[in-house]
Write the structure tokens for this entry.
Amino acid sequence: EAVVRDFSHQAQQRDIALRVACESPLPLLRGDRHFLTQALANLVENALKFTPEGGCVNVQAAVIEDCVVIKVSDTGIGIAPADLSRVFERFFRAEQPRMAHARGSGLGLSLVKAVMDAHNGRVWLESALGEGTTVYMALPISPSESLVQ
């Protein structure tokens, strides 16, 4: 919710609906709050960057089996099937002719993967050109000591 709040002004400026839906209550997670927040912020920022005006970005969180799964989905330009296997590589930027103006280093998704790996989590995505992208982060639910809310 805090990450969505941080990006709400940017979404409003571009007429993008930015919504959050969290299963309540979510369990506490073991991890580094700063890095987990940064990973989610990278996903929301990408979703907004690649979603045209009038589109929608949804952030959802729910418990699935023994993990908290966070899902960021957009109605953006999508990723070509040929690029899907490389999106988590450092410095990789898919060629998007309509988005040549979009700035970025190609590090955002590789950072998300590194954070998930460091937290014994998992990240993956689904995408279709012209329809949008959904990125999932799954974090294991931990015992109650040393937890992040």
